[in-house]
């Protein structure tokens, strides 16, 4: 029984790892497709793809389809698995420190890019929240903090994503249905959900399967939104609705979520089906009778 449970858990881990790899590969392909749209059809004056035709719709709907599939496949593991995520691991520490450094770099780049006199309320909030967010990634995964300061630091990432979402919504530089703006807003929502479940895990109320599903979505949306934007900034000097500094922070968070998802996959084991109380009592009674007859 134990050996059978072990092999079933191994199969589930393998399936989850393969799916994670498939979604990362699909996200890379979709990111390449969006970068092709930017390179070939992007209009810097309007923020739209001029003359892209059906190609834009195909790529956009493919992104949404892969994101939904990522969520469904993540939730598939909810009933069949027991997931024990280690609090500290070498990969997790690397991901946390790397992400913390990129978030800190985003803070510095923001100060360099934009004079403080030109900041609005949302700009100031985004900037201030980057500091506790960086501390969460650097200290939260590398140091055994008690759950209260860790949750407070982790919640700052949720707040930063929420403020960034509002900042994008009220940004009048581009229209509300601008494709780059929409993808960035969806990404902010996925970050909020992922770190909400991360905070739940810290206080012992985690839902690893749900977090894995949300992580899959965040990975897909991050690749499609962040990678093309960063490449377009370096190669063409385009600013796609958001500042370059926030893209650096999101790139670090992408790496963190990939590593966190991989660590979660490693913690998957097969969950034995629950036996109803009545059947369990009958089984125990039979075992007692069998023991008595053997004697």
Average pLDDT, to the nearest integer? Answer: 80
Oligomerization state: single chain
Helix content: over 70%
Rg, rounded, reads 23 Å
H/E element sequence: HHEHHHHHHEH
Spatial order of the strands in the main sheet? 1-2
Count the DSSP helices.
9
Task: List low-pLDDT spans.
Answer: none
Supply the helix-strand structural class: mainly alpha
Distance between the termini: 25 Å
Large-scale geometry: globular
Q: Report the major sheet.
A: 2 strands, antiparallel
The overall strand count is 2
Percent of residues in beta strands: under 5%
Give structural notes.
The protein has 295 residues and is mostly helical. The chain is built from 9 helices and 2 strands, in the order H-H-E-H-H-H-H-H-H-E-H. It has helices at residues 2-41, 54-80, 90-113, 121-142, 147-169, 179-202, 208-236, 244-266, 277-294; strands spanning 81-83, 268-270. The chain has a two-stranded antiparallel sheet. Helix 5 packs antiparallel against helix 6 (179-202) and helix 6 (179-202) packs antiparallel against helix 7 (208-236). The protein is globular, with a radius of gyration of 23 Å. The model has no long low-confidence stretch (mean pLDDT 80).
């Amino acid at each position: 029984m134990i050996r059978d449970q072990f092999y079933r858990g191994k199969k589930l881990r393998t399936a989850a790892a393969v799916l994670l790899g498939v979604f990362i590969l699909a996200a890379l392909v979709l990111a390449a497709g969006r970068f092709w749209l930017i390179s070939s059809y992007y209009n810097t004056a309007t923020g739209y793809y001029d003359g892209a035709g059906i190609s834009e719709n195909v790529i956009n709907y493919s992104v949404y389809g892969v994101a939904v599939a990522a969520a469904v496949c993540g939730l598939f593991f909810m009933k069949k698995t027991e997931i024990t995520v280690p609090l500290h691991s070498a990969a997790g520490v690397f991901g946390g420190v790397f992400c913390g450094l990129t978030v800190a770099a985003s803070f510095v780049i923001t100060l360099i890019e934009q004079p403080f006199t030109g900041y609005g309320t949302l700009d100031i909030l985004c900037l201030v929240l980057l500091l506790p967010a960086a501390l969460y990634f650097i200290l939260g995964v590398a140091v055994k903090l008690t759950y209260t300061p860790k949750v407070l630091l982790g919640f700052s990432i949720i707040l930063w994503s929420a403020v960034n979402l509002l900042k994008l919504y009220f940004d009048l530089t581009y229209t509300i249905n601008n494709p780059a703006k929409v993808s960035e807003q969806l990404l902010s929502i996925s970050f909020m959900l992922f770190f909400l479940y991360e905070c739940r895990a810290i206080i012992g109320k985690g839902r690893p399967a749900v977090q894995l599903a949300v992580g899959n979505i965040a990975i897909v949306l991050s690749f499609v939104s962040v990678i093309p934007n960063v490449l377009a900034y370096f190669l063409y000097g385009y600013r796609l609705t958001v500042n370059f500094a926030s893209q650096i922070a999101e790139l670090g968070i992408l790496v963190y979520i990939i590593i966190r998802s991989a660590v979660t996959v490693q913690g998957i084991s097969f969950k034995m089906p629950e036996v109803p109380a009545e059947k369990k009592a009958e089984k125990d009674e039979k075992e007692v009778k069998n023991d008595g007859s053997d004697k």
